[in-house]
Amino acid sequence: MTGFGERLRTVFADRGRLCVGIDPHAHLLEEWGLPASAAGAREFGLRTVDAAAGRVGIVKPQVSFFERWGSAGFAALEEVLTAARSAGLLVIADAKRGDIGTTMDAYGDAWLTPGSPLEADALTANPFLGVGTLDHTFDLAEAHGKGVFVLAATSNADAFTAQRARLISGDTVSAGVIAEVSARNAQHTPSGHWAALGFVIGATVDWTEAGLIAPVPPAPILGPGFGFQGAAAEDLARFGGAAPTVIVSESRSILSAGPGSLAARIEERANLYRSEGNA
To answer: What is the pLDDT of residues 189-220, one digit of tens each?
Structure first.
């Protein structure tokens, strides 16, 4: 079975590194002429999938914008996930799940088990209850060719105090997370391959201030913050030696084009990162 890192590597080569967020914000639903409901979120998601298919290789539904509608919202999300995977898109469920024991295990089962109603290709996960709480999720991902993106260094100012605190080792908390997950990757990743377990590192994060170094072996990095939040193609340089594995994530900067211009906006942004990011 091909591991997630190598699947992602193939997507980069074939369709570039742009990831289109599927975030049905209330104001976007209104701008798109859709109802503020689960049905509106479903239509929004399916239209985005249609526009993304064949133009990029990755989409990232933000789970919260669906689950706010309760069971109907989850049903809508299931349809969007299924449609995206059926269209050949790599799907990252942005759920940021994190808990202890069997609770976290159940989250992993929900999102990464083949045949699950919520099956995705990868899941974002919160390690701040201890990286070890994600062991079952890591096992599941590796067994089924899935991926996990572990929060490491987010760009929101509220996170700096906790994530840049120093461990006994002298490393920042962010660096400690990367080191711990990288040690596992080293045990499970064939030589020359990209790892299955990656990281969320904001595109505006200063790597020196955060105490970060590039993961070894090479690991996928989900880089939110491009587009609407201010990061541009040239900010890929912030990732230093890790830049080749960075997924450029854009949501509102693309979705704000509206349904009529969505496909053209996706094509424009995808071409930008093909030329700037993969040179």
So the answer is: 999 999 999 999 999 999 999 999 999 999 99
pLDDT classification of 275: cutoffs 50, 70, 90: low
What values do phi and psi take at 95, rounded to 5?
Answer: -110, -20
Cis peptide before 218 (omega within 30 of 0): no
Exposed (0-12), middle (13-18) or buried (19+): which is 13, by Cβ within 10 Å? exposed
Position 262: which residue type?
Answer: L
Place of tokens 């993304």: 52
Is residue 204 packed enough to be buried (19+ CB in 10 Å), middle (13-18) or exposed (0-12)? middle
Catalytic residue (one of 25, 96, 184, 274): 96
In this predicted model, what pLDDT tens digit does every residue of 103-136 receive, in sequence order?
999 999 999 999 999 999 999 999 999 999 999 9
Q: Quick check: is 60 catalytic?
A: no
Q: Which residues contact 37 (CB under 8 A, 6 or more apart)?
A: 69, 72
For the segment(s) 4-273, the CATH number from 3.20.20.70, 3.40.50.970, 3.40.30.10, 3.40.190.10 is 3.20.20.70
